[in-house]
Amino acid sequence: MTLQSFLFYFLAIISVGSALMMVTRRNPVIAALYLILNFFALGGLYLTLNAQFIAFIQVLVYAGAIMVLFLFVIMLLNLGDVQLLGDKISYKKIIAVGLSFGLLMELIYIFGYARANLPASRFDKSVDLGTVENIGKELFTTFLFPFEVTSILLLAAIVGAVILAKRKLE
Amino acid sequence: MDIQPYLLLSAITFVIGVVGVLARRNAIIVFMSIELMLNSVNLSLVAFSAFLGDVTGQMLVFFVMTVAAAEAAVGLAIIIALFRNKQTVNLEDINILKW
Prior knowledge:
The complex is a heterodimer of chains A (170) and B (99).
Chain A: H1 3-24, H2 28-48, H3 52-77, H4 91-116, H5 132-139, H6 144-165
Helix pairs in contact in A: 1-2, 2-3
Chain B: H1 4-23, H2 27-52, H3 56-86
């Protein structure tokens, strides 16, 4: 077993386990903490795929900024304990789980189909692919226009968040 | 190492997120499940990027993360506004648009 596959299975177990814990927890704060664990595991998985820049952004932006926002809102709202996933088994939940299982089967089928048509793996040549240098070069040449549009998107999000969270609009 | 385990992991995490969105009634946990789904798609994008030797997948992940940050800010503002009006984030009680 190579180091990459060992790291993959280790991080994959953490990732799936923390995702399951996140969905089934009663307290939103604990669910948010499990989600942070999941994001850290995903950051590690990105490192096994030679995507260093994305791995750092994952930890900085997701596990750092976005989850702090979530935790702030949860604590601001001061929610009591809410219903657990298995507390009240209703027909809606059974249908939801059944539909999700069907979706999983479909995804596995599609990925199996895509696997047969994939070109030969070029993983050995992807060592320099995700470095900050390479990402920056691509970002400011090929993807310059989407990058600039992103700034407008962020401005719209800031304005929208401020207006929505305001108590009264004059 | 093959690409298949990465895609399988991505599919499993995505489906866990779908279960969270469909079965949970707490708006914040539904919202976190959506973040989980976004992340699982990011994982398959990075996996394809690495195995095809093409950087485009990683650029796409970069933009997905920006959109996710904007979505989190606006969505949480909506949840706060909702809580201020209804004193609850339980999706069963938020039903004024229900026919």
